[in-house]
Amino acid sequence: MAEDIYKPIDQDIHSEPMILQMGPSHPATHGTVRFTLTLEGEKVIKCETEVGYLHRGFEKECEEATWTQVFPYTDRLNYVSPLLNNFGYALAVERLLGIEVPERCDWIRTIMGELSRLSDHLTCIGAGGLELGAMTAFLYAIEGRELVWDLIEQVTGARLTVSYGRIGGLKDDLTPDFAERWAYTRERLVEIHEITHKLLTRNRIFLDRMEGTGVITPEMGVSYGYTGVCLRSTGVAYDVRKDHPYFKYGEVDFDVPVGKHGDNMDRYLCRMEELVQSIRIIDQCLAKMKPGPINTDDPRVALPGKDKVYNTIEGMISHFKIIFEGVQVPAGEVYSYTEGGNGELGFYIVSNGTGKPWKIHVRSPSLIVMGGIHKLFEGGLLADIIPTFDTINMIGGECDK
Amino acid sequence: MAKKLIDFVKKHFGDEVLDAHSRLGNDTVVVERRRVADIIERLRDDDATQMNMLRAITCVDYLHREPRFEVVYILYSIAKKHMLTVRVVVPEDDCNVPTVEHLYGCAAWMEREVWDMYGVTFEGHSDLRRVLLYEEFEGHPLRKDYAKQASQPRLELLGKERDSVEEFNRYVKDKPSEGSRQA
């Protein structure tokens, strides 16, 4: 008799796949992405990605602004590490201008860039933990991030939209007590790194969600244009800082952590290891850098000091020309690339020889990652979307431009 | 390193190369657009080049120049660490380029972005839809003749367009590639 009762349950019931709309207002999709999922039970069999809910017309705005006025827009690309975008753009324009920046500027860009990377990775790790229920890990990571942002705020004067980079230099030098403050922050960051390892790395709930989910193969990663941690987690050691050193990355010693499986766990571990490497880079930079100018002395590019503007006619003319007409960049085009928070950040810029860019195309890693994200979701479970989407570290501002 | 890739393209596709130069660390070849997919495929598969990564596809609108558009492919080899920019010129009245979707996973997405922003179509693309803008958007905003302050007509609410499997499939598969209701 008992078998008869259970028979209907064992039968293959004809059922249609279910369509589930995830986002854009789902908290895990950051309010900017929609996944139209086709589910069979809990399994995702098809995923249609839709982005663009935040589109602000970054490239169009840039074409209407002078070269220097683009900096505030680049802040709003990856707002978790805006300095990296600032410097990436500045480097692209400098390449087109054919100018070199002073040595100290390069050291400072390396330091501030790595601080931003710390902020980026800490946010990603913390938020990833939070969405799997690890509130404590999140609070620690955010404490670390806030300490980093305190340093950035002290130097740049702003907390989120820093606009610190300049063509041919920087807005300001580091503050005199930067090294001491870094020493304090560094100590706490190392502690937080250890605590995070203890809280997450061998946590059963965390491991079950992270190991073997969201797997990318090296071939697929390369074909889909993945860069940064997403690609390195598969074992491909491509890092722009190492392969094509810019700023002072060629003069400091650091390792490029790679993963083996390309799953969520590897991406998490790569980020954890990169935190250590970033701290190493900053330490070396502070030890090696020397006092000196931070802005290029090329009068076509650098704004003159206020004493010159008020007291000399050349200074005043130069100031007016740069502010009103913009820096005159010679005609031509260049593709310049740096290592952003989530991967290769490229700027393809075209100049027609005036003070405004003719075209700026940004190769934003987040947008390109979204092109292949359905491959990571399909075949997995609905619940795996949360950690996978977290470790991919898509940033809405950069994705939608 | 610089000249090697340009020479490679010239050697194998000499007739298709319209221009080549090496400036500011970027090697560039301008090629005939009808053969661009073949050239990129060769660059990807040949042992000497191994351009296994497509960094970006974008387009530049030179408004007053003839031909008006230029589609730019930036190729990179992770193993060989070299980069090549392949450009094709596209006239306004015949605004299309063969797709390279079958060569790189990311190309489909990037080509959608170029179509969305510039209105350049990619022949043979399996799913050419807008990516950043909504489907009812009229025009292509990164064209130089699209005014920055231009506004779009108000949309009707879409209603229950995608509430069943059938409707969803129709939406995904049978959507015309024009990307605009008016077209």
Structure notes:
The complex is a heterodimer of chains A (401) and B (183). With 401 residues, chain A is mainly alpha-helical. Chain A has a single domain, classed as Cytochrome-c3 Hydrogenase, chain B, CATH 1.10.645.10. A three-stranded antiparallel beta sheet of chain A has the order 1-2-3. In chain A, helix 5 packs antiparallel against helix 6, helix 7 runs antiparallel to helix 12 and helix 12 packs parallel to helix 17. Chain A is globular, with a radius of gyration of 23 Å. The mean pLDDT of chain A is 89. In chain B, strands 1-2-5-4-3 form a five-stranded mixed beta sheet. Chain B is α/β, with parallel strands linked by helices. The chains are: A mainly alpha (401), B alpha/beta (183). Chains A and B meet through helix 2, helix 9, strand 6, strand 7 and strand 8 of A and strand 3, helix 3 and helix 4 of B.
Q: Characterize the overall form of chain B.
A: globular
Strand percent estimate of chain A: 5-15%
The count of strands of chain A amounts to 8
The span between the termini of chain A is 64 Å
Strand content of chain B: 15-25%
CATH level 1 class label of chain A: Mainly Alpha
Helix content of chain A: 40-55%
Helix-strand pattern of chain A: HEEEHHHHHEEHHHHHHHHEEEHHHH
Q: How does the helix and strand content of chain A classify structurally? A: mainly alpha
**What is the strand tally of chain B?**
7
How many helical elements of chain A? Answer: 18
At CATH's second level, what is the architecture of chain A?
Answer: Orthogonal Bundle
Number of helices of chain B: 4
**In which order are the strands of the major sheet of chain B placed?**
1-2-5-4-3
Flag low-confidence runs of chain B. Answer: 176-183
Keywords:
A: 401 residues; mainly alpha; three-stranded antiparallel beta sheet; 8 strands; 50% helix; 12% strand; B: 183 residues; alpha/beta; five-stranded mixed beta sheet; two-stranded parallel ribbon; 4 helices; globular; disordered C terminus; oxidoreductase activity (chain A)
